Amino acid sequence: MSQPLLEIRNLTVAFNTERGREPLRAVNDVSLSVYPSQTLAVVGESGCGKSVTALSILRLIPSPPGRVLNGQILLEGRDLLHNSERQMQQVRGKEIAMIFQEPMTSLNPVYTVGDQIGEAVTLHQHVNSQQAKEITMEAMAAVGIADPRRRLDAYPHQLSGGMRQRIMIAMALSCKPKLLIADEPTTALDVTIQAQILELLRKLQRDTGMSIILITHDLGVVAENADVVAVMYASRIVEYAGVEELFDHPLHPYTHGLFRAVPRLGQAAARLEAIPGTVPNPMQFPSGCKFHPRCAETSKRAAESSDVVQITADRKPLTVMRVCTQEEPVLREVSPGHWAACHFSPGYADAPVSAAQLDHRRQVSAESEIVGGATV
Amino acid sequence: MTIPMPPTAVSVGPASPATNGRPLLEVQNLRVWFPIQKGLLSRTVGYVKAVDGVSFDLAPGRTLGLVGESGCGKTTVGRAILRLIRPGGGVVLDGAVRFKGENFLLKRGSELRRLRRQLQIIFQDPVSSLNPRLTIGNIIGEPLSVHGIATGRKRTEMVAALLDRVGLDPSYARRYPHEFSGGQRQRIGIARAISLSPEFIVCDEPVSALDVSIQSQILNLLADLRKERHITYLFIAHNLAVVEHFSDDVAVMYLGRIVEKAAASELYKNARHPYTVALLSAAPNLDPRPTHRRIVLAGEVPSPANPPPGCAFHPRCPLTRQLAAGSGEKDTVSVVSGGQTVRVLRKCVEESPRLVQLNGPAGHVCACWGVS
Amino acid sequence: MSEAPAIAPVTSYSREVAARVMRRWGARIGLAWILVLVFLAVFAPFLATTHPLLMKAQGHWSSPAIQNLTAADVILLAGFFCGVALLPLRLNVLIKMAVLGAVLFLTAIPAIIWVHAPELVVYETYRNQVHDGRIEYALLAPIPYSPSDHLNDMDDGRLKEPDRSHWMGTTDLSADLLTNMIHASRIALSIGFISTGIAVTIGVLVGGLMGYFAGWIDLLGMRVVEIFDSMPTLLLLLCFVAFFKPNLYIMMAIIGATTWVPYAYFVRAEFLSLRDRDFVHAARAAGIPTLSIVFRHMLLNGLTPVIVTASFGVASAILYESTLSFLGLGLANESSWGSLLEEALGTGGTFYWWIALYPGMAIFVTVFAYNLIGEALRDALDPRLGRMM
């Protein structure tokens, strides 16, 4: 049994709001793990806390107003939360690297891309400027940029979105990190470019053995790239499983609802089964399970049960199971390698509360035929 | 204004349902070219050919989906139809947009204003599509006043009814846009669009900026409104699954032209144009055990300021390379693409293909030398 | 975009901005000082005057202070009370301003026609008569001196240091400094607001036209703007003063006519970007007439940088006037803070510290106050500063 590369245990991150109000918990009791050469996808909609979780790993949350209230972030056993700022600077870029959604705003517009990659290289490796240039060009070639020598002097605004994202990836990988955190790396890109970038990430993972935490809201991207999936809703992880297991047997009503709400290619449906209501406001989270006002499962069971309660959801009265409004379910291992946080997942009541860790790799990788150029 | 048209202009409309047969909207050879101006006196040195000869018909009650990647011109088509592109300043804007037979682009004054009631638009960005300084009630109700449909109390009632129809509390009419979430703002935008009871609505990426769980709500709302009010939609999006689900017919655009058009289910089963095939292949599926081989197109989406000659897709096209490999010297030509030299069919570089009907279901057209 | 539904109570955008501004302590201090100045300016004829507020002479009660009000005093008082009455009402800001304007206008006409203060006043009469007993009772103003009261009944009241009777000392003309300061606050306030008002009006009109129509109107307009941009305000004022007598209104006009350029740039830039905003497209698609789009949809949104710059502009207008007055080129009849400052350096190099300190501090604090407000406005209106996460 190998050890996880990165382990997050019971992480809680809060933000101070206006004076006098309670701090807002953006991330609440989140635990997950990433193994070497594994891709963990963190899926959720806006406001669920996935980006804050990722930024917290690298301690990039500004400290007022954000605070870590609780938890540990263990990189190969060392708690990053105990690091000083100087120690963190050794970690960032070198052991853990991060790429972001908007390449235009993540790259400095007044420096050439060669300078920016070179800066990352010289910061973490003891090389002279000529060697740094060589390493830079190698990194650019590795991410599929044709003619790197010519591109060294290009400015970000002269490049397309896909190219900029490749530059970001080159910067991130220039020091061969063990873990890459990718925060919505392809959301701003066209579909064909997205396919290129994801293919590139898969190839780089095969070549370097690095782990990837892939943050996204796109279930299709998850299906084709992830080994293990963590589903987040309103600051908590609600489901955690291997990718095939999750898509075959979703156990949390939210995951189930997401699958039914997304239109699928080739399966024309007359009407989508939408999840009613909206993501709750963090200042006014519902009591008990945060999903209950929108949950199809609880209202279905309430129709045949007596232990119910009436609430108002989306301007209409709704009957739900009492337990869902009183007790917030924690993540439990309801079947081997599959964690869910729902009172009505089969076997929930007796399931053990254990740390969500899964050393699983996907069985089938998306095979690609690259057309129209030698490099992706 | 007769300028020689590029040969992609022939359009074949979809089979009309059993109504009076006349299409509601006919777009004919629409061109929108933006000038590239350089120098002290802003001389026009070239054009960004955002839309370069687009034609299609829309029967009443049908939904046409328009897909493509950034720079293909689909958003410009939608805005040009609604006359939101200003023709001054060297912009080339020609073609015809016939709404119930009359060319909308030529209308003026009060006739234009009268006709504007019938064609409306829903925007992509929920933040910038609502005036932050006006209340929701004013945003939705202003068109009603301007067109003399309702004022005062009657207008307030109509606004309340519209808010209710799109799933919002009527008391929200007193509030301001910044108090609402993205999905709610999009509903407000929909309420504004239907307030004048239009017959045609351009949906410009209406759900792209929304969360997944909200997207389905909005799509359902649009579908319900379509049935209730018999609205004809032009549905512009880049998410293929969403477009297939929502549209009756789908047209694929690349660099300002339509390259393939068919009924939605037909397109997804039998896509013929190599770009469409690649696009469908690139779209991620909700299948953790993918069986099909994905085609990953190398190279960047070219800029409409400098489109490749002949068929704009030829530098990245797998089909032309494949066909060139099996052809003689005189039929092929070398081009440089993505830093490499490859052999492609001569015809693909010299002549721009026309949209032609394929052997198969009526209405499935494709613009590709390799296919026809 | 977060889907969290609305929880805040109904607030308009202006109220939100006002709340955000008031949260900063700088804005509160600045606003407090400006309000103090406004109060002093409006109530100067009652706060600092030799005329008793209430007097009993030979059996008759009278109020010389009220009898000696000028037309300007009356208009200011009317405007002040009207403004205070309107403030708590929940009406549209434009409606309130219209009402205020109407009240001012309606007061101005009878005031100018009927209210005449006597031209020549012998101030020492009051003090002599009180001393003699011919005035049985006199309720004096808190600062019982008028600006032009040259204390002729006292021997050598010139240039005296601050003491119990003259809290800020006296000037070269033997007038009480404090009362001059109070009355000069009117000039400080008015020159700031009126010249900035002129500048904003011209700037918004020119910039708005250029931004909305673009094309060749923009090209021509930019050339006009560049011409005005190169005009040096201070030199123009000096030239004017050299050829004509210094006149407050013309000075305000000159300042207004030469400082409108930044406002035009801002409004033009805002309009150029607003033209392509989706909500403007939506208004056009709905058939809303062009004029309505410009005034209702675009102007309201495009004024934000103008407001910020205007508050800095008011500060700089005050500095222009102070500079001119200090150079001896300001207004002749009334003293302003700058002209008082000029007297600080006497002949033979003597330095009268109180004449430098108090007017100097007043100018400094006022300019500082406007800058604080301007900065708070800028931060409050910056859309990015509101977001976290």
Multimer state: heterotrimer
How much is the average pLDDT of chain C? Answer: 81
Helix/strand-derived category of chain C reads mainly alpha
Number of strands of chain C: 3
Principal-axis shape of chain B equals globular
Q: For the CA atoms, what is the radius of gyration of chain B? A: 22 Å
Q: What profile does the largest beta sheet of chain C have?
A: 3 strands, antiparallel
- Describe the global form of chain C: elongated
> Roughly how many Å apart are the termini of chain B?
31 Å
**Largest contact between chains:** A-B, 62 and 59 residues
CATH architecture of one domain in chain C: Orthogonal Bundle
Major β-sheet strand ordering of chain B:
6-7-8-3-9-10-15-14
Low-confidence stretches of chain C at least 5 residues in length (pLDDT < 50)?
1-9, 385-389
Description:
With 376 residues, chain A is an alpha/beta fold. Chain A contains 13 helices and 15 strands. Chain A has an 8-stranded mixed β-sheet with strand order 6-7-8-3-9-10-14-13, with helices on both faces. Chain A has a 4-stranded antiparallel β-sheet with strand order 2-1-4-5, with helices on one face. Chain A is globular and about 75 Å long. The model of chain A has no long low-confidence stretch (mean pLDDT 88). In chain B, helix 3 (136-146) packs parallel to helix 5 (182-194), helix 4 (152-165) crosses helix 5 and helix 5 (182-194) packs parallel to helix 6. Chain B starts with 24 loop residues before the first strand and ends in a 6-residue tail after the last strand. Chain C has a domain at 15-43 and 160-385: MetI-like (MetI-like fold). In chain C, a hairpin with a 2-residue loop joins strand 1 and strand 2 (60-62). Chain C has 389 residues and is mainly α. Chains A and B meet through helix 7, helix 8, helix 9, helix 10 and helix 11 of A and helix 5, helix 6, helix 7, helix 8 and helix 9 of B.
